[in-house]
Amino acid sequence: LENRDLRSNNQAFLNEIYITEANFIEGFYCNGLGKSIKKITLPLTPTFQGLLKFEGWEVDTILISGVNQNLKLLFKRMFFRFFMINDFTNYSDISIDKCKGYGDCTLNLSDCDLGATKFNEFAFDSFKAIRIDNATLDRIKPTSNTWFNDEVLQIGNGAQTKQEEFKSKREIYRQIKQALKSNGNQIDSLIFQARELAAFRGEQKNSGNYDWADRVIMSVSQANDFGLNWSKPTKIVFGVTFFLYIALLPCLSDEILYEFAFCPEDLKNTWQAFSSKLDVFWQLFNPVRQMKATYGNVNSGWIYFIDLLHRIFLGIMIFQIVK
């Protein structure tokens, strides 16, 4: 079925497609040729069999529901405004290839198990909102998709508490991460692993049991955006080490004191002391540095204590950089 009339100059027009309990033994192909259609409704049942393919439609609303047990369902080069999969379970083969949203589009997954649904070059990032409530996604087969941002995801029906919302979001990200790993996509799985940890942090913050130990652990883990940003802990290390060097400088040089500089001569002396001890600054980046080689003959207990804390800090941050 093509959305055109080859026998005359009449322009074909199709307003809605509704198919249920059909048996397409040799397959049914519905090609929209880039034209628009208001609605496609597919209430699937176990008696719905064969091959059904939609291609080239610009759909305002598509609704899939029921149980797919024997149908091979294909969507190719489609544009969706409202893509809804509600009260649905997939035991068979569904493939959604090179599809995207348009306009103020929404992807809605509610009370559904997508099974082994294939998403090939699907533009998740084209949807303005993605609403998910009680959906199973850990067995989907994603390939070369562009993923949505965290702000786009909307959880449940709005009746949950903040803790429940973050918990549901964490579970969704865990399922997508698992699906990506199962299909060999380790790189994209790291994105959702980071989002899973961020959602867990939000869940803990709203649980009422977020003690200081959890705060420290989650704050340190967030230093590299949960494994996605090595430059952030690098900048933190450089900034903290530079501040430590400035703070220790009066203890390492007899030329300056812990006082405000009010004249050009003081600023000049400070700069000379700063530049003359730069070798100490670079040695501070070594967590296994030697005290005497770094600080010289300094016997201050405070310097030893601060140096110990800085070494611990360096070890943690280096782990965050290479993690």
Helix-strand category:
alpha/beta
> How are the strands of the biggest sheet laid out side by side?
1-3-5-7-9-11-13
The percent range for helix content is 25-40%
- Biggest pleated sheet: 7 strands, parallel
Q: What's the total number of strands?
A: 13
- The span between the termini is 54 Å
Rg on CA atoms, Å: 30 Å
Number of continuous helical runs = 8
Approximately how much beta-strand content do the residues carry? 25-35%
Instruction: Specify the overall morphology.
Output: elongated
Précis, in short:
This protein has 323 residues and is α/β, with parallel strands linked by helices. It has helices at 162-182, 186-205, 212-221, 231-252, 264-276, 278-283, 291-295, 301-322; strands at residues 16-18, 23-31, 36-44, 49-55, 58-68, 70-76, 79-90, 93-97, 100-113, 118-120, 129-136, 141-143, 153-155.
Explain how this protein is built.
Strands 1-3-5-7-9-11-13 form a 7-stranded parallel β-sheet, covered by helices on one side. A 6-stranded parallel β-sheet has the order 2-4-6-8-10-12. The protein is elongated and about 95 Å long. The relative contact order is 0.06. The model has no long low-confidence stretch (mean pLDDT 87). It has helices at 162-182, 186-205, 212-221, 231-252, 264-276, 278-283, 291-295, 301-322, and strands spanning 16-18, 23-31, 36-44, 49-55, 58-68, 70-76, 79-90, 93-97, 100-113, 118-120, 129-136, 141-143, 153-155. Helix 4 (231-252) packs antiparallel against helix 8 (301-322). By secondary structure, the protein is of the alpha/beta class.
